[in-house]
Structures are given as C-alpha cells and as structure tokens.
Design a protein that fits this description.
single chain; 4 strands
C-alpha cells in the first residue's frame, strides 16, 4: 500500500481498470499533523490521502522522506509540511481492506 497526496497519480491510472503496477485505490480523509522533533502536532484540518495498492516492484523506486525535507508535492496547499497522522491512516487503511 502506498499513501500519497490525492491527485499525484492521474485518476485514470487509479480507477481500478489499469493493469500492471497500480491496483485498487481509495481516497481517505486523514487528520493532518506537523512533525517537530519526532512529535506530531495536529494542524486542525484533514488531508486528502490517496491510498493505492501497488505492485511490490514499485518500492524499489521509493525512499523514506527525511524530517524537514523539501517535497515536490504536499498533502496540503496551505501547509506544505503537513502529513497524515499515521495511526489514523493505518486504522482507515485497515478498515478499507
């Protein structure tokens, strides 16, 4: 499973009809947080998160984002450093699958 900002992958590539590396997907609304010194601070808004089942081979092209690293895309236009709160994201992902 991959959790990314909604809209990063074009809708036609995640509609469930494509074959190959991208499988079923859903958009979740997850509370947003800021990471500061490895602590999460709520931002008071939910973030749209695209949860997509991807082929395991895609993971070779991924890496863990470092804290305070600039990102090319963000989950929030208002706060580019906002991230989905992980426990809520995991719970919502498990309820989806």
């Amino acid at each position: 499973m991959l959790a990314i900002p909604d809209g990063v992958i074009p809708a036609e590539d995640v509609d469930g009809s494509s074959q190959g590396q991208v499988g079923p997907s859903t958009v979740l609304s997850v509370p947003g947080v800021l990471l500061e010194d490895r602590r999460e601070s709520p931002i008071g808004a939910d973030l749209p998160v695209l949860l997509v089942d991807i082929d395991a081979s895609v993971s070779a092209n991924l890496r863990v984002m470092e804290e305070n690293e600039d990102s090319l895309v963000s989950f929030s236009e208002d706060d580019p450093f906002a991230l989905p709160e992980i426990q809520s994201l995991i719970a919502l992902a498990f309820s989806w699958i």
